[in-house]
Amino acid sequence: MERGFGGEGCVLVTAYHTENTMKIVIAGLGIIGGSIAKALKKYTDHEIYGINRSKAPLAKALECGAIDGVGTNETLKTADMLILGMYPDAAVEFVKSHAEFIGKKCIVTDTSGIKSEICPKLSSLAKEHGFTFVGFHPMAGKEKNGFDVSDADLFLNASAILIPGDAPAEAVKRVADLTKKIGFGRVVYATPEEHDRMIAFTSQLPHVLACAYVFSPQCPKHEGFSAGSYRDVSRVANINASLWSELFIENKEPLLLEIQTLIDNLKEIKEGIEKGDREELAALLHQARVIKEALGE
Amino acid sequence: MERGFGGEGCVLVTAYHTENTMKIVIAGLGIIGGSIAKALKKYTDHEIYGINRSKAPLAKALECGAIDGVGTNETLKTADMLILGMYPDAAVEFVKSHAEFIGKKCIVTDTSGIKSEICPKLSSLAKEHGFTFVGFHPMAGKEKNGFDVSDADLFLNASAILIPGDAPAEAVKRVADLTKKIGFGRVVYATPEEHDRMIAFTSQLPHVLACAYVFSPQCPKHEGFSAGSYRDVSRVANINASLWSELFIENKEPLLLEIQTLIDNLKEIKEGIEKGDREELAALLHQARVIKEALGE
Between the CA of residue B169 and those of A200, B107, B134, B172, what are the distances in Å? Predict the structure, then answer.
């Protein structure tokens, strides 16, 4: 397996562990942290240590071989990478309370669904304590949560969004390389603000509207009257309310903008239906098809 | 193959062809009519005749064996069943202009996505001319249209909604039996009004919101920032605008109600995000999960 950095910008290479095997600590063994652990064990030969507030996921991860051991403050001191698999605020809290143990060669990365709210805080902590921070959002998930539904192949062909911030290029490359090793199909780079604006549309808005959709009084009676359209729109209404309420509120501004845009667009179609001019309505709806086709979808 | 009717209500049995092989005419060989033709040839030994405005689908259907021949006014005179695979208004027009040729033993059924607007018209025509009408809505489809994407297994495990109206029970049973033979997993019965109220929610609203969703200025930039949520919500935005504008306008009242309900629910979640109380927002979102879980989804 080819690892390490080559070519340009090698000045900082020595700041990071360049041997084949890295010591990686994953804090938070839910679906994302658990899946990263399993994927790392399946596709790489890195040493993996798990940290988790409750004991059950740790025991399960040890038993199934997703981690080599339970991480401690001592493990953090010599870790090459720390991956945070927690809710956004908890991730910041974890780094804050463990900053003194995180070694200077360590690259810290998170997996949060929001970035403007937490990347600057984690970058500041990194600068203050001498380690490196690179933001990361794996675009994969399931309707269910927790270590039990984690999956070594959750990330196959998914997109990895990286938020380099002011991290050295070598550290960013190391995270990018690791995402490719565990199955991600592509890596895209963004600022925290670009990320949050896009995610408000691609991920948060579909969750908002899935919930709004199933609130219809017709919903409980849908059986026998529904097919793929119902199933697809309502899928993510099976929501982890505690996680998503945090994500929504911490990405308030871009998300409110997307919800209002959706409401305005719904009103425009509604007015077209009220007016009852078939050709005019067809022309409006056809624009949606044009957008999808231009995207090759 | 067991067909025919047994037991109670046999008085009207003689009004219908009770032999094993029926002569079935399908008018309109798009994705739905074409799939019914292919499924009938695959799973039954009925004789199938196709009628279509343009010639290409007829030639293709003949070539691939989806139909035994091209239907004519003469075929209609001796047909046991006429299945309308056309847009709603076109279906009514077809029956109106061919009513004199439709034999009295014939069961006419449609496949329209709206019922209040067309079932009463088709029932009246049936009464006037002595044949039988049973409304039918197959809950299956694809994002693409036309005979080319028709599929003998399109209906596997799908729901068949039947609108019996005042049709004799034997005729309704014959249509229901046929749907089961071609793969439908269940049959549900409804009045036109019940059907239209449910379909406004389960099928039309997802199409409206998929279009409204992709109208966001963020949409063309989504690549690399999206996963299953984007894909599922936007899927049906690749809309057949001419068909759906007809369906939306002809089901105006229930659909406008559903769109307004969705807008109101979106506003409620939006206000929760604006207010920024995590627990209150989580409690609201959690109701969506409760609804999905109660449905076993």
Answer: 52, 12, 10, 5
Q: Quick check: B128 contacting A, CB < 8 Å?
A: no
Compute the 3-state secondary structure of chain B and give helix, strand, coil in percent, each to the nearest 5: 55, 10, 35
A227 to B139: CB separation less than 8 angstroms, yes or no = yes
**ipTM strictly over 0.85?**
yes
pLDDT of residue A20: 76
Which DSSP string corresponds to B85-127? Answer: -S-HHHHHHHHHHHGGGS-TTPEEEE--S--TTTHHHHHHHHH
pLDDT in tens, B212-225: 999 999 999 999 99
Query: Three-state DSSP class for A91?
Result: helix
Q: What is the pTM of this model?
A: 0.87
Chain A environment of B155 (Cβ under 8 Å): none
Indicate yes or no: CB of B238 within 8 angstroms of CB of A262: no
Exposure letters A23-49 (e unless 16+ CB within 10 A, then b): bbbbbbbbbbbbbbbbbbbebbebbbb
Bridge partners (DSSP) of residue A71 are none
Name which of B266, B275, B277, B289 to mutate to probe chain A: the one with the most chain A Cβ atoms within 10 A of its Cβ: B266
Give the pLDDT score at B144.
Answer: 81
CA distance B169 to chain A (A): 20
In this structure, what DSSP letter does residue A133 have?
A: E
pLDDT at B163: 98
Alpha-carbon span B125 to B132, nearest angstrom: 9
Interface A–B counts its CB contacts (< 8 A) at 313
A244 near B CB under 8 A:
yes
Are B159 and A225 in contact, with CB atoms under 8 Å apart? yes
pLDDT band at B10 (very low <50, low <70, confident <90, very high): very low
- Residues A44-84: pLDDT tens digits? 999 999 999 999 999 999 999 999 999 999 999 999 999 99
Q: Phi, psi at residue B58, to the nearest 5°?
A: -65, -45
Residue A145: is its pLDDT beyond 90? Answer: no
* CA atoms within 13 A of residue A244's CA, in its CB half-sphere: 31
The answer to whether the beta carbons of residues A161 and A112 sit under 8 Å apart is: no
Q: Do A235 and B232 touch (CB under 8 A)?
A: yes
Q: How far apart are CA B142 and CA A282, in angstroms?
A: 19
Residue with tokens 């109670």: B8
Closest approach of A63 to chain B, Cα-based (Å): 30
Here the tokens at position B214 are 């992709």
Judged by a CB distance cut-off of 8 A, whether residue A261 touches chain B is yes
Check if the beta carbon of residue B199 is closer than 8 Å to that of residue B158. no
pLDDT at residue A107 above 90? yes
B159 touches chain A (CB under 8 A): yes
Nearest-CB residue to B262 (from A213, A224, A279): A213
> Could A202 and B213 be called an inter-chain contact, meaning their C-beta atoms sit closer than 8 Å?
no
Chain A, 77 to 116: residues with Cβ < 8 Å from chain B are none
Per the CB < 8 Å rule, is A266 touching B268?
Answer: no
